Amino acid sequence: MFENLTDRLERSFKLLKGQGRITEINVAETLKEVRRALLDADVNYKIAKSFTDTVKEKALGQNVLAAVKPNEMIVKIVHDELAELMGGNSEDINIKGNPAVVLIAGLQGSGKTTFAAKLAVMLKEKRGKDPLLVAGDIYRPAAIDQLKVLGEQAGIAVYTEEGNKNPVYIVKEAIKFAKRQGFDQVIIDTAGRLAIDEEMMKEIASIKTAVKPHETLFVVDAMTGQDAVNTAKEFNERLDYEGVVLTKLDGDTRGGAALSIRSVVNKPIKFVGSGEKLDALDVFHPERMADRILGMGDIVSLVEKAQEQFDAEEARKIQKKIAKDQFNFNDFISQIQQIKKMGNIKDLASMIPGVGKAMKNLDIDDDAFKSIEAIIHSMTPLERENPFVLNGSRKKRIAVGSGTSIQEVNRLIKQFDETRKMMKMMSGGKNMARMMNNMQGMRRN
Predict the structure, then answer these.
(1) Candidates 1.20.120.140, 3.20.20.70, 3.30.420.40, 3.40.50.150; correct CATH number of 3-85?
(2) What pTM was estimated for this model as a whole?
(3) Is the pLDDT of residue 264 over 60?
(4) Domain-by-domain residue ranges, the chain?
(5) pLDDT at 171 (0 to 100)
(6) Which residues lie closer than 8 Å to 223 by C-beta, 6 or more apart?
(7) Residues of 363-390 as b/e, b for ≥16 C-beta within 10 angstroms?
(8) What confidence tens digit (pLDDT) does each residue in 274-321 have?
(9) Which residues, other chains included, contact 256 with Cβ-Cβ below 8 Å and sequence gap of 6+?
(10) Quick one: CA dihedral 371, 373, 378, 380, positive or negative?
(11) CB 280 within 8 A of CB 305
């Protein structure tokens, strides 16, 4: 998401490079390109114009310090205004209640059911809650089956009443069940339609009236652009929901919905989803998103993801082994597993300033380390513990066992040695970027 917008904005700011001071003429020229970039990203025209007018007013009203270059100041103003446009600050979900009830609404295909399961996982693993998922879609049997499968994968209980065609009755009974069984969160997945219709609106409104949820969230597919914003507006007029969830941010989306939706409905974006994995859900932080849009990375989110998987004792052991030059393939694959838990490699790389741009055209999928793992798992315990014993016959056996070639095994061993040396000397962002590129080289080979 936002790759094209990021490139366009960078080109816009270059118009001010070399300028000694800010003038109405050079600011107007720069902001004309910024406005075009926003429109191309599918941002509403009125919002794009209002945005650039505000930036212009603030830029011309600034007393520019001698140490601050005009293009740097414009970047700072645009960054702050982008963050403000998307809400300014992150807003938490209301999960206070006994049980707390969260109602999920949206069009069919927007990702409601998957989001419901992701939210349950987040509340369970990060907030220590005990959620119950409720299958409130009475029209699409596949939705009930999908929720059951997702619940089973995540170890989350799912309440269903298959055959019952009264969604209001189902959700009311589900809340009674949750109280009896001691669940402290109830997440209700509701029916969607292919398009907004009166019957659908009446049904979701009647469910909200019946259960009085502590939080109503509208789920919208970010790839639908301005259509997403218009749909959000219509739902809000009927439901007066508390927040928006943008899904499919990993798809081919221009990002206009993220930039426009807050201004149109005056409701915060609370979560963003990317990918099908149940942990692929993040709290929406406007400032961090503005950082990423302007190519500044998002180190805070990267550190948070790392901390979620961080094992302090294991890290100390690894550090000692690196210092003694005893880092082996067992340690290497352990580190790979931790990296995989953090999320998609390309998404992680995009959070490092400068690295995301360098890797944007690389095709990195979720199986990025598949061949590496296959090779390492084909080694004996002795070989994993002592890489120096890997001779020609052993490499041939490993290649056959892993379904790879001797050349691939040799490349992995060589790059493992380089990574081991790099880890020993690593200090600072430049070396981190080199390590990410080295990992990408391993996958590509």
Answers:
(1) 1.20.120.140
(2) 0.65
(3) yes
(4) 3-85, 100-292, 301-444
(5) 92
(6) 248, 251, 252, 253
(7) ebeeebbebbeebbebbeeebbeebeeb
(8) 777 888 888 888 888 777 777 654 444 455 555 555 555 666 676 677
(9) 38, 41, 42, 43, 44, 225, 226, 229
(10) positive
(11) no
Q: Can you tell me the distance from the alpha carbon of 159 to that of 141, in angstroms, rounded to the nearest whole number?
A: 14
- Radius of gyration over every alpha carbon of the chain, rounded to an integer in angstroms: 25
In contact, 270 and 243? CB cutoff 8 Å: yes
Residue 334 buriedness (CB in 10 A; 0-12 / 13-18 / 19+)? middle
**For the chain, how long is the longest CA-to-CA vector?**
73
- pLDDT score recorded for residue 161: 85
Residues whose CB is less than 8 angstroms from the CB of residue 271 and which lie 6 or more positions away in sequence, other chains included: 93, 115, 119, 217, 243, 245, 246, 281, 282, 283, 284
Q: What one-letter code names the amino acid at 326?
A: Q
Which two three-digit tokens encode residue 261?
Answer: 């939706």
Q: How far is CA 405 from the centre of its chain?
A: 35
Give the pLDDT score at 3: 62
Angle at the Cα of 306 from the Cα atoms of 185 and 290, rounded to 5 degrees: 80
Which residue from 97, 70, 96 is spatially nearest to 13, judged by alpha carbons?
70
**By C-alpha distance, which of 26, 11, 6, 83 is closest to 51?**
83
- Select 301-444's CATH number: 2.50.20.10, 3.40.190.10, 1.10.260.30, 3.40.50.2300: 1.10.260.30
Residue type, 394: R
Are 291 and 298 within 8 A, CB to CB?
Answer: yes
Provide the CATH topology of domain 100-292. Answer: Rossmann fold (3.40.50)
The C-alpha atoms of residue 26 and residue 31 are separated, in whole angstroms, by: 9
The C-alpha angle with vertex 417 and arms to 413 and 418, in degrees rounded to 5, equals 120
User: Token pair of 191, please?
Assistant: 């029916």
Cα–Cα distance list, 7 to 64, 275, 356 (Å): 26, 24, 12
What is the C-alpha separation between 289 and 222, in angstroms, rounded? 14
